[in-house]
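User: I'm writing a tutorial on reading structure tokens. Could you give me a worked example: one chain, its sequence, then its tokens, then a sentence or two explaining what the tokens reveal?
Assistant: Sure. Here is the example chain.
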Amino acid sequence: MPLLKQGQLTNDHWVRVEDDADISDEIAAVVSLERWKAEADVLKKRNAPVGVAFSNDQSPADIADDLDAIGTVFLTFPAYTDGRAYSQARLLRQRFAYKGEIRATGNVLRDQYAFMQRCGFDAFEIAEGADLAGWGRSAQAMSHHYQTAADGVKAVWAKRHGQQAGA
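And here are its predicted structure tokens:
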């Protein structure tokens, strides 16, 4: 599956590892939240980075104390109508100050790209054969925003009144 980061296609070096599988110390491994909770002490000692995959009914608060040890958080969109991953991303960025990569996986659609970026997503697994030019246009579709968000972009009302983002 192609990976889009900063508007560019890039290689995905992360490998998803099943809960009962051994993890090579040389790979960037993605584990489930359940496995992270069970093996966090061991996983933190690895030489290679570890990512944690969430289902959309799990809380980022479960890893809040471990975020400095997690390279990427994978948040799932099981359907385009299920927006819980937006809330998870915002919590990670704003409440827990997570600075690592937040990746959108699953049913990721380009018409939601700009909204996902505003919530804190910075990597997107997109469908094979997707129109990459269309994804680029989607990123530029909105030039002004009316609300503050996790991306730190100044809202249009704040620009009008000379206020800082998040004020």
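What the tokens reveal: The first helix runs from residue 33 to 43. The chain has a mean pLDDT of 85.
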